[in-house]
Design goal:
By secondary structure, this protein is an all-alpha fold. The chain is built from 12 helices and 3 strands; from the N terminus they run βααβααααβαααααα. It has one domain: Up-down Bundle (Rhopdopsin 7-helix transmembrane proteins).
Amino acid sequence: MFLFNFIIVGFPGFQDQESKKTLFTFFLIAYLFILLVNLMLIFIFAADRNLHTPMYLLVCSLAILDIVLSTNTVPRMLALFISDSRSTPFVTCFTQTYFFLGLSSVECFLLGLMAYDRHIAISKPLHYPSIMTNSRILKLIIYSWVGGFLCPAIAVGLALRFPFCGPNKITQCFCDYSSVLILACGDIMVTSYVALAMGLSILFIPLIYIIFSYAKIIMSVLKISSAGRMKAFSTCGTHLLVISLYFFVTAGVFISYRIPGTSVDVRIMAAVLQNVFPPLMNPIIYCLRTKEIREKSFVRNLWKIRNILTHSITLQ
């Protein structure tokens, strides 16, 4: 028998209505805030021609990615929390899996591209305008998106070779690769190792390049004056915060699946936060640490909206 639908279980330990209501409220507010702050960044960049530079084009691309990444999973999660509709069609589930893997790969590549941009800006400031033109950075951004979506094709293709004829319950809040693959009928060991190797490669190759780039940046910064040094560290500090946030959250998910005795709910929450926390914090980091963005009146109004949302959470 071939499965046509999967059942998304959600949090096994939070199946009562009160818990579902709390989860729904929390993730709804988080999702709305993700949309608000990232759309705000995109609007600011589009409206201000002074921000049409390679660095801000990368930030804008990351904002678009954060919107798409959270939209791929959060709305379906909200429907899971507020209703009893747990059934997900086979094609829809694998589409969500593919997009999640693809978007995660794109984020790794964009973070690596940001490190490349800062490396050129700090190490070769006189050549930066000729090397990092807007047209070139747009091409590199496009390559990152295309490459990111090509990366999971093999892993997903290998999973689709298996028949799905047994259990159909996914113990997760969305269709992630490992939760779907274990439901396949057949020996999935080789496929699991291939997918793991590809995933670690996509994660660590950009990370190694980022570490190498910042080692070069630090050596270059130590050679300049103290005033220029502070400005360089301030510029790179924002990017380092965004990088650290992404890789620490990803490492947390990986560790939660490797520690024996970790509850299923903790593992699910770690995976869910991977879709929510970086998209929520990235624009806040850029708003707080980037002078050109911080001085916009629209950003000042954002904090008023944030206070309203925080107050509404308290009332819940």
